[in-house]
Each structure stands twice: as C-alpha cells, then as structure tokens.
Write a structure and sequence with these properties.
Layout (H helix, E strand, L loop, with lengths): L1 H10 L2 H29 L4 H29 L1 H21 L3 H27 L5 H32 L1 H18 L7 H4 L9 H12 L2 H28 L5 H13 L4 H11 L2 H12 L1 H5 L6 H29 L5 H65 L8 H5 L2
Helix pairs in contact: 2-3, 2-5, 2-6, 2-7, 2-10, 3-4, 3-5, 3-16, 4-5, 4-7, 5-16, 6-7, 6-11, 6-12, 6-15, 10-11, 10-15, 10-16, 11-15, 13-15, 13-16
Amino acid sequence: MLAGFRQTVLKVPNWIWVSLSCGLYWFAHSMTRPVIALYGADLGLSPSRISAILTVYAFVPMLLAIPGGSLADALGRIRVLRWGALLMVLSGCLYVAGRTFAMMLAAQLLAGVGQMAVWLVVQVLITDEETGEGQHKRIATFSAYMVLGQLLAPLAGGLIADTAGYPAVFAAYVAICALLYLVVWFCRETKAKMERHRAAWPHFATMCAKSWRLLRNRLFAATLWCTFIVLFIIDVRMTFLPLYLQPVMSNTELGSLVSVGALSGLFVRPLYPWLMRRHSYRAILSATFAVSLCLLLFTPLLKHYIAFLVLVFVAGIALGINQPLTLSLISRSTPVEDRGLGVGLRLMANRGSQMLDPVLFGLFAASVGMSGAFWLVGLLLLVCSAYTVYLFSRHERTRDADAGVPASPASPLERAGR
C-alpha cells in the first residue's frame, strides 16, 4: 500500500507539489500579516512597539537571505524547505501563547526565518527548470497558487477574528503550517540540481564576490528593484491599509479588501503567458508600475468601501503580473549554479522592503499623518520605479548594441528616470 502511494506521488509533477507548497505558504503568511498590527493595537501596545514587531519579522531574514540561498545550494534545497516549514509551525505556537510584547517579537522572529527559508526554496525549485514557454506556464501556475493563498487567507482571517478573536487566527495559522510541513515532504530536488555535484560549503568572501558580480548585472539589479517596489506596495496593502481604515471598517471588510487585491491576481494566470508573447519586459514593467502605484496615491482621496474595492482590485492585477515577471527575470539573469544565491538576493530585497515599510511609513505618519504618508511613500516608489525601468532599458540597449539591433524609443518612465 505504501509502495503504491509512493508511486502515485512520484507520478505527480514536482512543480505541482512546489506550487501547492507556495499556496499554503502564502495562505499562512497572508492570514496573519494583516492581523499582527491590529492584534498589537488590541493588546494596547504603542505604535513604536507595533513598528518594532513588524520590523523584526524582516530584519534578521534580510541578513540571512544571501547565506540562506548559498546554504540551500550546499545542503540541499529540500532539507532547508522542511526546516523552514517546521520553524513556521513553531512560530505559530508562540503566536498562540503570546500575550506580551516579548512573545510577539519572538514569534515574529521565528516566523520571519522560517518563512524566508520556505519562500526562498520554492522560488528556486520553480525556476530551476528549462526556460521558454513551458517555464512561463509553470511560473504562471505557481503564481496562481500564490494568489489563491493571498485571496482566501485575509478574508478567512478577518472572519475568524470577528467571530472568535485574534488568538483563533493564530491557531488556524498553526494548522495551515502543519499541513504545509506535510506537503513539503513530497517535493523533490529538480533534475538540474540532481545532475550537478553538490555545491561547496559557502564562504563569506565567495558569497560577497558572487553577489557583487550579480549586482553589476543591470538586468539582475532591475529585477531586485522591481521586487523591492512590488513587495513594498503589497506590504502596505496588507498592513497599513487595514490600519488606516480600521476606524471605519470591520475586520471582515478589511480582510475582504486584502482578498480582493489577491483575487485580481487570478486573472494573471491566463494573461501572463500572452503578455510575455506580445509585449516587451520594459513595456510590461512601465505599465504595471504606473497602475500599482495608484493604490498609494489614490487611497487618501477615497471615502467609500466600493471605491477601495475597485482601487485594490485594479492595482492587484498589476502587482499580480509583476510577481511572476520577477521570477522570469531571475531565471534570465542568473546562471543555474548561482540560482540559490540569486533568489537569496531577491528575498533580501523582499525583506528589505518589509523592514523599511513600517519604518518609513511610521516616520511619515508621525510627521504628516497617515494620508500624507501614503502620498510620500507613493512618490518615493515612483522615483524607484523610474530608475528600475531606466536600468532595464540600459540593459536592453547594451544587449541590442552587441547584437547590432537598432535602439527602441525610451518609455515615459525611463525618461523620468534620467
């Protein structure tokens, strides 16, 4: 019986298990992320302590992202994936037991490290296959599972919080993490990884040299900036938008807003491969940046729930396109032997945005209020978006010049970045 079950599992493509792990990861992450700040406020913690809780989640994982990618290459991606899932389960236990500032800090720290490991490895596994149309379809499916997690979790978390309280949300988080821990045992190393010798144990100087070489690649640098911008906006949507609207909306309404942002991402599954065939990376980047930034720039102008639903939905489409786009760019801009390090750098950009988000938003809100903070952060990210498109355009022009292809006209965002 066990042999038959094993044969059935082996017949399931590895990327399906990886995509399912991705969906469960995002369900767990998205269920608790909007609740952390609200729970801190419910416990009577000061805004500075709430910002510290949000910041510690990203700070240590940001420092561990680069060595984490190299360790995944050296120790085996699946081993790191399983340890990360286990740490997520343990962090959930701390959330359930936590009623103090210190306990919440410890839970956030453990959750940050565990989620970093899981998210790093599933990205490596989904990109560490052959390139081309098949990879675009796999990444689109992977993103669809991610969007399902982002869609269902905030709404479920809001309903649970309204009916049973915040501790019940963390109990549900433990259950999802336990299911994730079971699923990751079905994931396998990719064929490309198994055909290579195990990577050498990473040394600090070697990691720095390889990281510097990757960062000098304009395409890779543009990918990191894109990742930073997208995750910054998503984190604002998941944390500060609910906090901004809490006085006028219930937890269920707040959770539905976050879920609608993820719902729009479901349209990306059929749309993404078509966009990749019909349009250039530069055109897609320019359009998606312009649309997603509307979430920040228009929020202070709106008053009604329906208007927020429309805004979050439209911006969510752009953000949903950008997430698989950065995975495709990582695959294009990193050699296979350095894929773990490349994804580690991408994850460092993720966690850097999640660390700077509460710091910058808190500073701006303290000086100009919450509405002004949305505008200031939006303008700052607009500048970063222009620079990202500029970097990507420089890469394309260098590549086309080497191939003898005439340069294409600059985009509006590229001109703004000059």
